Amino acid sequence: GKPKVVVVGGGAGGATAARYIAKDSEGEIDVTLIEPSRSYYTCFFSNLYIGGFRELDSIEHSYGTLAAEYGINVVHDWATGVDRDAKTVALAGGGSVPYDRLVLSPGIDFVEGSVAGWDLNAQNAMPHAYKGGSQTELLKAQIEAMPEGGTFVMVAPPNPYRCPPGPYERISMVAHVLNTSNPTAKIIIADPKESFSKQALFEEGWQKHYGGMITRIGPDFGGGNVTVDPAAMTVDIDGETVNADVVNVIPAQKAGHICDAAGLTEGNWAPVVPQTMQSRMDENIHILGDATNQGDMPKSGYSANSQAKVAAMAVRGALTGSRVFPAKFSNTCWSLIETNDGVKVGATYEATDEKIAKVDGFVSQTGEDAALRKATYEESIGWYEGITTDMFG
Ligand code: FAD
């Protein structure tokens, strides 16, 4: 019969890989996509939803076109394990699915115990909103219900984590909401990192638009020494207790659990061969996106989408003999600081034996004029339309 590809995870990496393998092999490869959710809510632009710049249904996507137009067999279930000798994926609902090549793009899970006092049972009291959908809705509702003059605390994650500017774009969007509806409210960031992505741009913007509202406590002042109490709604930062109204805990991260279950991780992440995105531990398995340890690319939707196209080409090459070109990757991360005040950072990359290596990069500058910032924001809207069409058809 036809060669079989199974893709686990219908997000930025997995949906793109499934679509490109099905589309470009023109029916020569059987593609099965395993994803528990019927709706995928993008994390990208979820901050804009929190800020009131997007409606929730504008960041919701379904798998209908992948099934109907590309003939992908979409299975709504969890993959619970991989038998690498038999080359089968076990499903939570029972049974297993055979593969010739397996693609894993499960995104992230959280490192247990990384924020003292917090675990997944506390995610309703203190949401992470670092996976899409209901968590994002919950965080937005909590921000809108804050009492006048209340306090929002973010516990920021250590490196590496998905979307390096994501926490700081979120802070900008929370400040945008509070600045209009609750201007005496306060925002505190407890941060274990010395520095963060696009820091000069964010700090300039926060000063300009939200002067005085945002305080970041970095590691020098104990920002990495945090304990939370979800029942009392307090955050202890280096021995000082803060009474909070909303606490957004973004824990340390690791590869989605299935990578561990399949024995494909080293430490928290899954190492891959840059030219093909094959696991360094199993040549029949390709791993994409946030779950990987690949080198210089940030963990982003743009990166996952870019890596997926490289993997799709390699998978088709291996299974149908189609031509494989040298891998090229790219990424851009846009962030919105305030209405029409968009900034970006990006780069191109190539595959070396050792890692995905940065070739060339660019970043927005402080002091740019309003027209350029507006154009940068508008570019991000075009990017969103483009990547979601590239993923879901
Ligand atoms: P995901 O897109 O998370 O997809 C993983 C999928 O796998 C999920 O649908 C999940 O249900 C499924 N899955 C997991 N385990 C299993 C299993 N065992 N069986 C079956 N299915 C499974 N990136 C950008 O490029 N630009 C941005 O502006 C941007 N903004 C962001 C803002 C925020 C607040 C956050 C949190 C992230 C942002 N990102 C952004 C990052 C981006 O969302 C991720 O990097 C990207 O989604 C990674 O793609 P992925 O395929 O690795 O994982």
Structure keywords:
25 strands, 29% helix, alpha/beta, 4-stranded parallel sheet, 9 helices, 5-stranded parallel sheet, 28% strand, 393 residues, globular, binds flavin-adenine dinucleotide
Give a structural overview:
This protein has 393 residues and is an alpha/beta fold. It is built from 9 helices and 25 strands. The strands form 8 sheets. A 5-stranded parallel beta sheet has the order 5-2-1-9-21, with helices on one face. The mean pLDDT is 98. The protein binds flavin-adenine dinucleotide (FAD). Flavin-adenine dinucleotide is lined by residues 8-14, 34-37, 40, 43-44, 46-47, 78-79, 105-107, 130, 162-163, 166, 170, 256, 258, 288-291, 299-302, 304, 333-334. This is Cytochrome-dependent sulfide dehydrogenase (Flavoprotein). Residues 136-251 form the Sulfide dehydrogenase [flavocytochrome c] flavoprotein chain central domain. Keywords: FAD, Flavoprotein.
